[in-house]
Description:
Elements: E1 5-6, E2 9-10, H1 13-16, E3 19-23, E4 27-30, E5 36-39, E6 43-52, H2 53-63, E7 69-72, E8 75-78, E9 84-87, E10 90-93, E11 99-101, E12 104-113
Antiparallel strand pairs: 1-2, 1-8, 3-6, 4-5, 6-12, 7-10, 8-9, 10-12, 11-12
Amino acid sequence: MASMSIGGNSFTDELETCTYIFKRFPVVETNGLGEAVNGGYPEITITYSELSESNFAWWASTICTNLASKTHTSATLYDDQGDTDAYTNAVVHYPTYDGIRGQWYQNVVVRITQLS
């Protein structure tokens, strides 16, 4: 059963079947003592090798409202340990893809940034 959601819109099981990368520390530098210093907010990259036309529309129209990016004030998403975390800020960027084969979008990538 799907357990992620953005803006009150739940992921289907098909939408949760993806390559999912959670970057807890998107920017890491080393200070003068050799210690890791991070900046920025966590971000997520979701990749689908193929995505149906209706599921692409879910990202493009429902989540991004056909904008280049859309800020949502509620999201429940997985972290890098497989737990779900609630966020009050999530910027979802319009999905990119490599091509369309029939009614299937190929190599779809969705970025979610500014998680807090």
